Amino acid sequence: MTNIDLQKLPQHIAIIMDGNGRWAQKHALGRVSGHKKGAEAVRDTVRACRELGIKCLTLYAFSVENWLRPNSEVEGLMRLLEEFLHSEIQELMDNDIRLMTIGNIDALREPVKKVLKESVGKTAKNSSMILTLALSYGSRDEMIHAVRKILNDKDTGKITTEEITKELFSSYLDTSLLPDPDLLIRTSGEYRVSNFLLWQMAYTEFYFTDVLWPDFRRDDLLKAIAEYQRRERRFGLTSDQIQKT
Ligand code: FPP
Question: Residue 112: which domain range?
Fold first, then answer.
């Protein structure tokens, strides 16, 4: 098992769970079987993060672009999500995990929307960890919605132009309750951000691994955290300045 320093954990980990399709192909299975196996990796990762004491975990489960996949795959993913929420709600409650979502939830079909709303409501008072699922999510859409809401609030006199700051903009995003991610993990050997948390990841450390998402396990998470802990986060300052703080 990889050693990590429990005193220097990232507060917020975001993950682009990629490679389900390739995993399925490698095992001569259909794509939805890859996603099913991916849901097991989700379960393991949530457990591992909770046990380690990670405060926020955000998972890119379905992007706005994913709607363009074959209907059978979209349907399969929606069914999986529904099953996952039904089967995990008790574990979320037992472990004091709050479920949140980012993205255009209204675009999801009714049964998924229903169980999502119930799970979000039921776990709202849990506070040991926040698990956020990005669903029908696209960072550019999120920013456009924020701009529209800001303009609307300006029109109605709620805010002035001078009050528009980075902090105010952040508070209009779906992620308003979350700190910016400290660590982004992307699996399956792809080196892209794919329209995920573009504003929020200005100073995030990126970690890429060749492991396909369905194979991602606790030790892969520990490796990512260990690598994060070896990095020096400078936030635009010099190394000397950081060492003096
Ligand atoms: C990317 O792999 C993965 C997705 C588009 C969906 C992620 C969904 C899950 C991990 C399972 C369900 C989620 C939850 C929260 C229960 P890909 O299909 O793009 O893989 P490929 O690039 O190898 O084709």
Answer: 12-138+180-244
Within a domain: 170: no
Question: What is the tens place of the pLDDT at every residue in 50-60?
Answer: 999 999 999 99
Q: Which helix (H) or strand (E) holds 133?
A: strand 129-137
Residue 111 — φ and ψ, nearest 5°?
-60, -35
DSSP bridge partners of 98: 130
Ligand 1 centre to CA of 188 (Å) is: 11
The pLDDT tens digits of the residues spanning 44-103 come to 999 999 999 999 999 999 999 999 999 999 999 999 999 999 999 999 999 999 999 999
148 in any annotated domain: no
CB 114, CB 72: distance < 8 Å: no
Residue 232: count other Cβ atoms within 10 Å of its Cβ. 8
Of 47, 6, 8, whose CA–CA distance to 182 is shortest?
8
User: What CATH number corresponds to the domain at position 121?
Assistant: 3.40.1180.10
- Quote the ligand 1 centre to 212 CA distance (angstroms): 10
189's tokens: 């050997």
Residue 173 lies in a domain: no
Cβ of 82 closer than 6 Å to ligand 1, yes or no, is no
- Tally of domains in the chain: 1
What pLDDT digit, counting tens, does each position of 99-150 carry?
999 999 999 999 999 999 999 999 999 999 999 999 999 999 999 999 999 9
Which atom, in ligand 1's list, is nearest to the CA of 212? 23
Q: How far is the CA of 34 from the centre of ligand 1 (A)?
A: 8
Q: For residue 162, tell me if it sits in a domain.
A: no
